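Chain A, query sequence.
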Amino acid sequence: MDQEFKANMSLSLIYGATLDSAKVEPIQKYFNLPDSAVEDLLNCDPGEGLLLISSRQEIIPIRVEATEQETEVIKGRYEPKKAQVIGYSILPEYEPLKDHHGVILKTWLQGDESHLIREGWEKVTNLQKATGKGSFSMFVPGGSIQGNQINLPGLGSMTVEHFTSVVQMESYLVSQKIECYSDHNQGADIVFVKNGRTYAIEYERGTRSQEDLIKKRDKLLTFDDYRFVCSPENFGHI
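Chain A, predicted structure.
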């Protein structure tokens, strides 16, 4: 029967939020999915999955998310007056981070985020968390991410991994009400003050010369304490 089903399925949708390694095995076998697609499925948030186009042998990540208004209609609670006032806001403590970095983390938002898309923002999902396990979502100006690089006005170009790691670390410190600031280009990436001591964090996982790495480390020596996050290849130089 499975071959007859496949012959009549030009498009297939697989949602991954409720899958685990045991449940995904028969799905991988049935659809002949590569390991990379299985990994994507296991990291899906609710509403996320894969679109399979059999005629072109394509596998495309998808995300289906109802707006607040659509959710109200589905649950039978929709009132026309509500539709006029639906919107979004950014939590006040994160407004300075939005202005500084030029992006919006989903955790900073309240309300209907679909308005952001209409304003020209682009939602990026399945980004690796730097302050815990799993993934997170972020809104960026449309077209600012190309491949693994992000380019933002006033900040220049850098890897998405570096940028999102710094933003997440600063966001965490703000959530803990710790005085801090960040700088993607000069000095330490993150500086924060706790119990009268000033600490610095430098996040450098890219390919850098030994001279550049030593210069970055030397800047950190001016603080009371510091942490240098680096690749194993760079550890010896630092």
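The chain has a mean pLDDT of 87. The chain has ten helices and 15 strands.
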